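Section 4.2 – Deliverable D4.2 (structural model, holo form)

The reporting period included a commitment to supply a predicted holo structure for the target in complex with guanosine-5'-diphosphate. Inputs used:
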Amino acid sequence: MTNVTIIGAQWGDEGKGKVVDWLASRADIVVRFQGGHNAGHTLVVGNQTYKLSLLPSGLVRGKLGIIGNGVVVDPSALLAEIERVSAQGLPVTPETLRIADNAPLILPLHAALDGAREAARGDRKIGTTGRGIGPAYEDKVARRAIRMCDLAEPNTLSAKLDELLLHHNTLLAGLGAPTFEKTALLENLLQLAPKLLPFMEPVWERLSAAKQAGKRILFEGAQAVMLDVDHGTYPFVTSSNTVSGTAAAGSGVGPGAVGRVLGIAKAYCTRVGSGPFPTELHDETGQLLGERGHEFGTVTGRKRRCGWFDAAMVRQAVKVGGIDGLALTKLDVLDGFAQLKICVGYEINGETHKHLPAGMAAQSAAKPVYEVLEGWSQSTRGARSWAELPAAAIKYVKRVEELVEAPVTLLSTSPERDDTILVQDPFAS
Ligand code: GDP
Ligand code: IMO
Ligand code: MG
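Output (structure tokens):
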């Protein structure tokens, strides 16, 4: 018996939500360990579509959801999401959701600073989700964050707000943005406190007890390895570590609890926001991938940039993310292309590279080196077994496995929960 950790292997939106929902039937607890409401995970179950940002995707299966200390929690966004999914017939209560007492909070001033900084960057903007994720993580590392537990201590809250406002108002004023006033912020937090505190606990204790009782834990990553603050295409990244090791530090368990690591990758590639994307297609093929894959951001509604599968990049994600097996999603979107391309390396200023170098200029100069594969005309949409796949599709998957140096252990062929082909159960150790 082992735990499973799910992480994105590209630039996000690989279908982590669908895979977590599918695997959650085999788990007892689902834990979010990093990111915040910048994440957007879409789950399609029959005629219901759930769009989750902060809530662990396992809640849809009735599994206990935990928001770990590594997550930055916007209290208003969380309560709004709880209300939204409750209206869809999925009640979220302190019995089904627990939140770490040491999780840092996102306040309205974080989103304001996120927006003001992006505006100041002009052409060099990161293209953030504008949710205040970066500024909230900065405050955590700078030791001035307001955390869940502070909601139970009004005096601590008041003193911490003074420190926070001194810092943020100075920055906001410097950027020419409106500043914040303490009374309104404090009143708002004190009003939200009684709604949030029933969800709060030291989750490490519950996770430790779950381990002793032999329960299965599924760790649900947000974003992806190429958006990791250390290993991604810096500075065009998010502000947390998205690799599998973060599941331990971000929820309060030892590294052994991470278990088997399943990386999720689309059979092609997308990116939202700015930054290098060597295989991006600006032609009608890119347009077609976007239309077929319905590539619009769950959180911001922005059109996702689309391109061919980048095996060199996913191979790197497999190595730095500790990925044991890959779930390849959206294979059906490739149906009907006469030819498919896979990037196997890069040419940068006349030299060939096996992986993307760390430098910004080198990354933006990287030209993909392609291998061309035969496409297939049959539909793979909704396939639930290998036998339903055309030979060329199987060949494509096998080539992906070889190039990324990891086995494909799961295939997804539509947004619908059960349109999934399991090759190897990641929970089976
Ligand atoms: P996440 O952020 O990794 O959870 O992914 P998102 O939910 O943001 O984006 C993935 C999108 O693709 C969602 O709209 C899913 O419903 C959809 N999706 C997931 N798997 C498949 C698949 O195999 N085929 C197709 N066509 N769509 C899929
Ligand atoms: P899921 O979990 C795709 C991107 C933003 C931006 C960069 C930094 O749905 O895969 P941030 O607001 O985090 O400071 O923005 O990261 N980004 C995502 N892109 N999927 C996500 O989450 C993302 N979360 C952040 O577009 O480029
Ligand atoms: Mg998403």
